[in-house]
Amino acid sequence: MNAVLSRAGFLTSVQDLGRTGFRQFGVSTSGALDPFALRVANLLVGNDEGAAGLEITLGGLQLQFEDERIVAWCGGEFDVQIGSRVLAAGHVAYLQAGDELKFGRAQIGCRCWLAISGGIDVPVVLGSRSTDLRANFGGIEGRALRDGDVIPLSKWPGSPTPATAISSWSAPHDWVSPARRGPILRFIRGIDWERFNASTLQRFTIHEFSVSPDSDRMGVRLDGPELKRQDETDLISEAVAPGTIQVPPSGQPILLLGDCQTIGGYPKIAHVITVDLGIAAQLRAGDRVRFSEVSLQDAHRLLVERERDLERFRIGLSLQRS
Amino acid sequence: MEIVPLGDSALVVCVREQFEDAPEETLDEVLRVFQLLQGAAIPGVIELAPAYTSVAVFFNPIAVIKSNGPANGVFKELATRIRRVIIPASRRHRRRTAARSPRLTEIPVCYDAEFGLDLDRVAEHTKLSEREIIDLHSTSEYRVACVGFVPGFTFLAGLPKNLATPRRDVPRKEIPPGSVGIGGAQTGIYPLRSPGGWNLIGRTPLKLFDPTKDPPTLLCPGDRVRFRAITREEFAAFAEGRQNDN
Q1: Which of A300, B57, B68, B217 could disulfide-pair with A25, CB 3.0 to 4.6 Å?
Q2: Is A24's CB within 8 Å of B7's CB?
Q3: Of the residues B83, B99, B115, the one at which a domain ends
Q4: pTM (2 decimals)?
Q5: Do residue A20 and residue B46 have CB atoms under 8 angstroms apart?
Q6: Is A24 left (phi over 0), alpha (psi -120 to 50) or beta?
Q7: Which of B19, B74, B192 sits opposite A300 (nearest CB)?
Q8: Chain B interface disruption, residue of A20, A27, A269, most B CBs within 10 A
Q9: Cβ pair B8:A138 closer than 8 A
Q10: Residue of chain A whose alpha carbon sits nearest to that of B34
Q11: Considering only CB atoms, which residues of chain A are within 8 Å of chain B?
Q12: Best CA proximity match to B189, nearest among A192, A207, A145, A26
């Protein structure tokens, strides 16, 4: 059975938790830019955390299902409707065959992730169903979705619920709506931190940066105070990762996201911590953002706490279903 | 060997400081570390990425904690484990290195003007004739120093020094797959349609990246590479043969 897209929206693609194991061949992670949001959405509909869903950028998506399905979405603040009923982030909806799900424009943030019970059934390429939009493979023909696309869904046993229904409860607000106005992203120092002088580093941590319109899934380009290095030596290219903030000669930093290249030669001033990548994934042109330093230990502690809370949530969900 | 964090879910093992002063030796040492770490399969490690002078180790902090203990020591614990894998091996390894020779792959390249769009630029900069450039490029032996940037992009070390040519001031918006270029002191092959600033001197009909295969790339870090000049007709025949294979 399928989902049929009457409107594909601005940029919608099939993504799971990303592609690992092929970085040595230059293959990027791809995947949901906020993997945690997709994990939560998948748990809400009873899927494995890693099932493939849709990443929706700036809304405009309209789709119908050929059979009954459970859906949930997490991410930016979007107006989402099933017919005339509102489906808020983190709530679970039961849809009958033919029901139409509609994503309006984003009020805050720019992306959200839709999980559909059963998951999207596209072939696994290099260990993942994610679309690599730069190298054009994975997902549906390695491309962004178009109006009229038919998305194959895995079998789902169905549910005894008789009619279209939306749960009154939801997952924790912080998880399902990570988008913020003027967020502060926490970072740890990058390998090349010391190549910048004290006043530059101060500018980096005190001033606001604004998100440039040429940002995409590869990275968020930032405009702000110029960040200049003390030395001009050419650096030898080495690995970069989602979250890395690199500073090209222009002095305007780039915060790398899931589709980023595997290696880079620009100095790495900082790295946004994993638990804040979901907030970074919501930045859109014109948004303002600041950076605040934390220790590596704190970054790991925050990750452990979030994982522990997710485990509790998972247990809670399974008790509710049994 | 310095080990530094690359965010909270990766780290970089800095194998050497420099690449250019001893490319072969550096490459062998980086690959040795890469292979040792791959063989060690340290719990929590997801994947490795070698590049020129370093090997990046990507890990899942939660999985490292589950196998190794308290959260305040993820990085230290992992660094210790990595050092244990790398260091004892170096003495043993030195005796064995000579025995193993990396595989040699021949890459057919058509250097016709149709593909070698920047041959004139390279000629102007190097003060060599186009013929001399082609002869030099196709008689040298190279090694894959790094695969990355885009999937399958092959950075080759070993370009004759007199062929080095600075990148184009304005990068091309779109470079056809298989294009062979010179970027500074390096030569390389563009596997996919992508933007790029290297000087294009020819094109290979071979497919450098194929996501349906494992490994997905024709060339891997450390491989030895030679280019063989082919005619436009041979290029067409190759390309056609490839189509019939698919």
Answers
A1: B217
A2: no
A3: B99
A4: 0.94
A5: yes
A6: alpha
A7: B74
A8: A27
A9: no
A10: A24
A11: 20-28, 125-126, 132, 134-138, 188, 191, 236-241, 243-244, 261-263, 268, 271-274, 296-297, 299-301, 303-304, 307
A12: A26
- Tens of pLDDT along chain A (322 residues) come to 999 999 999 999 999 999 999 999 999 999 999 999 999 999 999 999 999 999 999 999 999 999 999 999 999 999 999 999 999 999 999 999 999 999 999 999 999 999 999 999 999 999 999 999 999 999 999 999 999 999 999 998 776 665 668 888 889 998 999 988 889 999 999 999 999 999 999 999 999 999 999 999 999 999 999 998 887 777 889 999 999 999 998 899 999 999 999 999 899 999 999 999 999 999 999 999 999 999 999 999 999 999 999 999 999 988 877 6
Domains and CATH numbers, chain A: 2-177 (no CATH), 184-301 (2.40.100.10)
Tokens of A246: 């690199």
- Give the DSSP letter string of A66-120: SS-EEEEEEEEEEEEEETTEE--TTEEEEE-TT-EEEEEEEEEEEEEEEEETT-B
**Got the DSSP string for B104-118?**
EEEEEEE--TTT-TT
Q: Write the ipTM.
A: 0.95
* Structural domain for B233, as ranges: 104-245
Same domain, B109 and B189: yes
Is the separation of the CB atoms in A204 and A229 below 8 Å?
no
The verdict on a CB contact (< 8 Å) between B71 and A304 is: yes
Of B8, B9, B150, which is closest to A26 when you measure between CB atoms? B150
Residues B12 and B132 in one domain: no
